[in-house]
Structure formats: C-alpha cells, structure tokens
Amino acid sequence: METGTIRFNKILLTTDFSSISEKALPYAAAIARHFGAMIYVAHVIPVEDYAHILPSERSAALVQMKEQAERQITAILSSSHFQGIPHKIVLDHGDVLTLLSRIAEEDNIDLIVTGTHGKHGLQKLFSGSMAEEILRVASIPVLAVGPEVVVEPQAEVNLRRILYATDFLPESKRAMRYAYALAGQYGGHLYFLHVVEDVWREPLSTRVPADAFCRVQLQEKGFSEMDESVHPEFLVEFGMAEELTLEVAKTRDVQLMVLNVPETVHPVLSAHLPGPLAYNIVSHARCPVLGVRGKVEIAKDEGENAQPAAD
Q: I need a surface site. Which of 74, 89, 114, 119 has the fewest CB within 10 A?
C-alpha cells in the first residue's frame, strides 16, 4: 500500500433541511475545520416539488423556493459549527443526482457529506434512496450520516476510533488507504475487521490468530505495503458480515466506519432494491460511514483532489 496523508480541500454538504440532514452538519464542519477546507452547501429543489405548478407560474415559484432555501442555508452557516469556515451556497433545481454530480465535478470537490433516511422495504422500493445513489455513482468518497447516528448539538465531533471492514477484494484497496490515512491524520486507533461468512473458503481463519490471518491475506492479495505509522488492531469474526460489522462498531464505540462501495451498472435501479451491504450498514450504524468506490483515483500530491497520496 502507498503510504501517505490525505487532504480534503473542498467539501460538498448536501441538505434537504430535514432533521436527518441536520445530523450531517457537525461532521461536515468538523472535517472542514480539521483540514482548513471550504464547504459548498448545496440544496437542489427536486422536480417533484415544482412539476405540479403551471408553466406560466413556475419561474416565479422557483425564485421564491430558492430565496427560502438560501435563508435556511444562511441560518445553518450562522450556527456555531460553521463559524470561521469559508463557504459557498449552491442552489439549483432539477434532477438531484445529476446536479450534485455536476457540482462535484465542476468545483473539484474532494468529499461529499450527506444525511440519509435509511429507507428500507416498500419505502425504498417506491421512492428509492438518494444517499445510496450518491454512494454508488460518486467518484469521490461520500460520508453518509444515517438515522441512527446521535449527535449532541454542541458536542465536539471526534473521528479517532475508526473501523475498516474488508473482504480483501482488490477493489477494496482504496477504501483501506483512506482508513489508514485518516487514522494517521487524526492520530486515532484503527480496527481492521474481516468477517468470515464461509470457513470452508477461508479455513486458515480458524487456525491462526486474527493478526496473522489478516497479514497473510494482505500479502497474498497485494495489500502488503501498509502505512507503518498506523498499527491497526486486526479482528476476525465469524457469521453474517452486516450484523457483525455493526456489532463490532457498537461494542468498540467506533466514531467512523470506512467501507468499500461496489460499483454498479444501474445505480438508480439499485437504489430501489434491497441492500447493498454498505447502504444497510449506513442505515443502522451509530456512527457515520465513509463509502469509497473501488475505482476512486489516488491524487499525486496535496495540490490535487484530496485522495491518499504518496509521501
């Protein structure tokens, strides 16, 4: 693995002004303050909010909607969380996912922070999950704050106990780099978790300590170069990955999870179907989850997008 640090220079915070969106605010602010980043606070008025308005009246209605949204964002930015943090307000209307993707690309955003309602069952089937769509298509990391995260209004946000859960697939390397880099950046403790769901496929896991098993897997699958400044606590559990990942995070009072997000050909369709594992964990975790897609590019130096970079 390439050793190095990360920098988040530009953070895109999405909001729909719901109570779930509010949970993401202190995390976006704390990360921006830590890295000296600029925050782009974005609100996109979805098509369904104005599609019923007569075309002749739509322009005036959208102006009023945007003025109201700007007042709400201004109130957010005037809170103690955001004092002294440089920011930009971004307002638009239309397809939410398309516009957020365009904003992220045009403004060279390094991190997206979003709240999620954690929709499941029929609710997810009919209306889908915007957070999952963002996780699925974003080429940059997405910090998703789910409905089970409890944030005290004035409490300091800490990200010093980090859990990285892996299946050792090649595309999970980049998520691992973020986990190591963030643990080093925050001077935190990294829990490195692998859940064995089928011991017949990984029989070695039952015969050697977790540390030895994980190191063997890392070496055999090309993950051998790790940041020597970070000393993770290796954990191997046996059972269902989703349940055990959440249980480990709870018992160790984890403050941030880092997960690989598999790519999909149809992210919008997937957002209406059960799963995937990463989204299910986001929906039930008591801490935010940093989702990293397998093909995220690694920046060459600190002057580029804030990806883990070689020292």
A: 74
